[in-house]
Amino acid sequence: MIKPLLNKIFSFYAAVTARANDDLTARRRRVAMSVIEGYNEWKIEKIMAPHAPECTHQLLPASLKYPELGYQAYKSFFSSMMPYFRNLKATVQDVFDDGTENKVVLTCLAHADTAIGPYNNEYIFMLYFDKDCHKVNKILEYVDSAYALEFFPRLRAYMSESEGQDWASRPAVSDETNLEAHV
């Protein structure tokens, strides 16, 4: 008599636990995708929306020598870069969900028009979530370091040379146009 009752209790507990885990998995994935959607909308409020106030953001690999940034520092840094990019499209290639560690890994490709020509990079985002999976507490963002080391010094040079100029009103530079005419 006790054994059947215990079996029912354990079955009920297993079902409730499985449902709760499914809810957290769905929430984690939804928030992870909102990170990419924020970049695609290209509005700083949307980009920062999934970040918890204590979120840290680290651009990697370490050989790039970017410091870990807190919420406000990342917002400021990224806001300063936004005027030099447009038509950004990030596409998720794969999603890895680790429910036991409460994190999601996204592999992505990103393309954009920039002040110095086309931008094409690969990313791996490692997203660490709060316990309820409502916000991201930590982001490790891996980029193609060879591409970053070639592209970003050129962009920084352009930024310092054209400070105060409105690049956004100029025609986009694409593969088919003469880069020299725009730089």
UniProtKB/TrEMBL annotation:
Gene3D superfamilies named in the record: 3.10.450.50
InterPro entries reported for this sequence: Fungal_Meroterpenoid_Isomerase, NTF2-like_dom_sf
UniProt signal peptide: none
Annotated PANTHER family: AUSTINOID BIOSYNTHESIS CLUSTERS PROTEIN F-RELATED (PTHR39598:SF1), AUSTINOL SYNTHESIS PROTEIN F-RELATED (PTHR39598)
Protein name: SnoaL-like domain-containing protein
Source species of the chain: Rhypophila decipiens
